Amino acid sequence: MADRSLSAMTSDTVERVPPAALRPRTAPRAAGPRSVRARRHWTWLAGGTVLSFLVPFVLADQLQLQRDLYYGIYGLAVVGLFTGWATDTGQSLREMCARRWRIALALGLAFAGISVLIVLGSEDATSRPGGLEFIAAIVWRGLIYGGIDGVLLSAFPIMVVFSAFAGSRLRLHRAGVFAVGAIALAASMAMTATYHLGYADFRSEKVRKPVSGDLVWSVPTLATLNPIGAPIAHAGLHVAAVTHSYETDLFLPPH
Questions:
Q1: pTM, entire model
Q2: End-to-end CA distance of the chain
């Protein structure tokens, strides 16, 4: 009798619990979120690229806002873009800026020096204002506007691309990391071209100059994945333009 009961219970259990092959399989948790995060990064990059064209095209080219007022609005748009991306995708600004910060700072200053040489070698010296107006121009048009430019043109696209590939197989091998770096640099150059095409005078062969310059000021962030390096290097370019070639027709757009 006991054997029959045991047999019945066993048969009951087998009927209630389907074989493993017949059970519904759920996808690994990591696969779904990772692809969602990647798509979100690419969406932010695409939106940032569109924004990089529209801001100068609408505010500078069409509305012709006063230059320093334009820089202020442009700066707010760039800061909003970068912090919006970081917040939406769960990136820690503190961790990003702390990553290899000494090397990022050193490279930023070194490439700022190279940027100064680029200005001195490509532009003639021009007259400039004096006193407080000149100091204000160095701070506003040189340091602040230059740093903001470095964020949009280099730091933002590079950080977004590397974040989009986070956890992917490419990041596990040195060759793959170099491939991601090449994609990030291409995104940065595309952002630089799109931004400058928003200004009327750069819709010509002239646009090649800032695109080639991007190969210089992007290096500190590309090498360290710290967003502070490129803005420092780019600020050096702008400070040199303000002090050496205040009436430049290449740097410090709109002209």
A1: 0.83
A2: 99
